[in-house]
Amino acid sequence: MTATTAPEAALGILPRADGSAKYSHAGYTVTGSVNGPIEAQRRDEHAYEAHVDVIVRPAAGVGGTRERHLESILQSSLSQLILVKDFPRSLIQIVLQVENSPENDYVDTKLVQASLNFSIMPALLQTAVLALLSAAVPMRATATATAIAVAQQGDHKKTIIDPSPRDIETAHSVHVLAFTSHDELLLAESEGDFTVRDWDDVYETAKRICCRSARPKEGMAMVLDEDDVGGPDMRHFLQSTMESKVAADLHWK
Amino acid sequence: MPREAEPSLNEKQFVLQALQENLRLDGRELDQYRPLDLSFGDQYGVADVTLGRTRVLAKATAEVTVPYADRPLDGIFTIATELSPMTSPAFEVNRPTETEVLLSRLLEKTVRRSGALDTESLCLVAGQKCWSVRVDVHVLSHDGNLIDASCLAVVAALRHFRKPDTSMDAGVLTVYTPAEREPVPLSWLHSPFCVTWSFFGDEADIAVLDATWLEEQVRVGSCTISLNKHGEICQIAKLGGTPVDAVALLQCTSVALTKVKEFSDLLDTKLAEDLKRRDKGGFMAELRAENER
């Protein structure tokens, strides 16, 4: 199936949740909903801050260890972003439902996969951030994320942005990096063999994708973009998605 | 988790009184469905059903496993319905509620036990290898009438689904990847659909189709009729304590048949549209490995 190159998102698609978003990029489609702040259960209640509950649900099969691991990573990253101290004794519930993930046409996929699937992390994080924005949950900053693989090409290594399952299979290492809107590194997860120099390359590439500064408004933008290295501009995408949503919501004014 | 807020006494009275005057809050007729939409995903076996504000996503998958010891000639077919907190914060993960149990029971009776999918065709090597077909039902948004929407989603997903092609050669089983051979559809026998009637009033004398969530909270009983377009009834489930007149039930069944024919037509046209969309170069007929029946 064709993987979309440009990220796409729709906000506020679920009528009953406080906030929701559907995000698709690089073959992954994730729908997320946010409810909160709501009443927390006794066992989840913190006296001084809100509990952030992340639930990742796979498209097929029941969630297992892999989903729990993704949840724990997302939970710790998102707690950094949300102003949890503002809502003591409450719960912010984030449900991420994977709808579609790219398949490798060259191998038979088994339903239960023990292996990690890192490349879905950016889609999950991005959906969560969009859904949180849609639910108007106060946050310290927004975040943008990307997945990068390092593969051998001839006698030197190259970085692949948003790798496909086939790329991941042949790659030396896969990295997921997320940055806040203050250009701070929020999340760095890596898998496979790599050197410090590889990681530095990956870091630079990821930073270019996630933290590109705002474009000049009109006119010269096109010329400047040409010499830029490929890959989507995540921060601009997030901004324009929110801008169009706000414009649509304030249409009556 | 917080409990779902119940409608207030005034709200309940308002809905009931309106229904007694043959009016519904959204201006529909008593036997009219909300706008129904069905779409398929890029992958095989993904169906997305939107019924008003209710939205259900079903995904079918298949893998090769070992058959059950007591049924060596049958494949495995399961329908998994798990309501997530996305549906409503009142649902908890790993703690089934009554809604969820009823939904999975009804889907089981309608699709699995009516023999819609020929499980014998899923057998690859008797007693050793078989296909395990699994449908996951994800309720994204719940605004009443989950059962009808989920049933349509499950049937649509299964009819849209293609499983990898296989061949047996001198006792060696080969499963072909999608790159090698075009996947093949399941052996599907008939398409059952659910139609749910809700009953209102002390005597259960008002029957309403496709109740919204608010109406579902006010009703005194419901009756789910599952049948296919030929009028063959797979199951009838009458829930709620208030008795319903037998003649009224017969009428409900005949209206249900017309609705099921509409569902069936909708599904057929959507499947044909999707096939046309996929058949870009016109090679689909040549790629297919199956024979015409």
Automatic annotation (TrEMBL), chain A:
Task: Give the primary localization class.
Answer: nucleus
| InterPro entries registered for this protein in UniProt | ExoRNase_PH_dom1, ExoRNase_PH_dom2_sf, PNPase/RNase_PH_dom_sf, Ribosomal_Su5_D2-typ_SF, RNase_PH
* Pfam families xrefs: RNase_PH
Gene Ontology cellular component list: cytoplasmic exosome (RNase complex); nuclear exosome (RNase complex); nucleolus
What's the superkingdom here? Eukaryota
Enumerate the spans annotated as Exoribonuclease phosphorolytic domain.
Answer: 9-138
Question: Which keywords has UniProt assigned to this entry?
Answer: Exosome, Nucleus, rRNA processing
Q: One GO biological process from the UniProt record? A: rRNA catabolic process
User: Where in the cell does this protein reside?
Assistant: Nucleus
| Signal peptide (UniProt feature, chain positions) | none
Name the Gene Ontology molecular function terms of this record.
RNA binding
Q: Which family does it belong to?
A: Belongs to the RNase PH family.
Q: What is this protein called?
A: Exoribonuclease phosphorolytic domain-containing protein
Source species of the chain: Thermothielavioides terrestris (strain ATCC 38088 / NRRL 8126) (Thielavia terrestris)
UniProtKB/TrEMBL annotation, chain B:
Any one GO molecular-function label of the UniProt entry: mRNA 3'-UTR AU-rich region binding
Predominant localisation class? cytoplasm
**Does the keyword Cytoplasm feature in the UniProt annotation?**
yes
Alphabetical UniProt keywords: Cytoplasm, Exosome, Nucleus, RNA-binding, rRNA processing
Give all residue intervals belonging to the Exoribonuclease phosphorolytic domain: 32-164, 191-257
Q: Name one GO cellular component term.
A: nuclear exosome (RNase complex)
* One record GO biological process: nuclear mRNA surveillance
- One Pfam family from the record: RNase_PH
Where in the cell?
Cytoplasm; Nucleus, Nucleolus
The family annotation for this protein states:
Belongs to the RNase PH family.
The name under which this protein is listed is Exosome complex component RRP45
Organism of derivation:
Thermothielavioides terrestris (strain ATCC 38088 / NRRL 8126)
